[in-house]
Specification:
It is built from no helices and 6 strands. The protein has 109 residues and is mostly beta strands. The protein has a single domain, classed as Protein of unknown function DUF3599 (Thrombin, subunit H).
């Protein structure tokens, strides 16, 4: 994996169930930044589907990053002001890198 191809910056976030309570004693679960890493966009596409609830656009992006332990489908990726659900995490080589296949689902009714 060449460093020059890692020309984007993404943020990997994880849902935190039991965060620290605020000054009022309220503990609300929220997305927490796990890592900010450099990434390469391998493929990006958008398709439109007609579903029972109306038309929807599905944007699929495949990011390639250096190896980062503990990334799973429960996490999400923040990129260019949008958030993408991680659908698949694929290992590249022997812990050299990861391919994150991500989907952003936007609906129009």
């Amino acid at each position: 994996m060449r460093a020059g191809r890692l020309d984007r910056e993404i943020t990997i976030q994880r849902w935190e169930e039991n965060p620290e309570p605020d000054e009022y004693g309220v503990a609300e679960p929220d997305w927490v930044d796990v890592a900010a890493v450099r990434a390469q966009i391998v493929q990006a596409s958008t398709e439109e589907f007609i579903r029972a609830y109306g038309a929807s656009d599905e944007t699929v992006i495949i990011f390639r990053i250096r190896w980062l332990d503990g990334i799973s489908n429960a996490d999400r990726v923040g990129y260019a002001g949008k958030y993408f659900n991680i659908k698949e995490v694929k290992e590249i080589g022997r812990r050299k890198g990861l391919e994150l296949r991500c989907v952003a689902l936007e609906t129009e009714i």
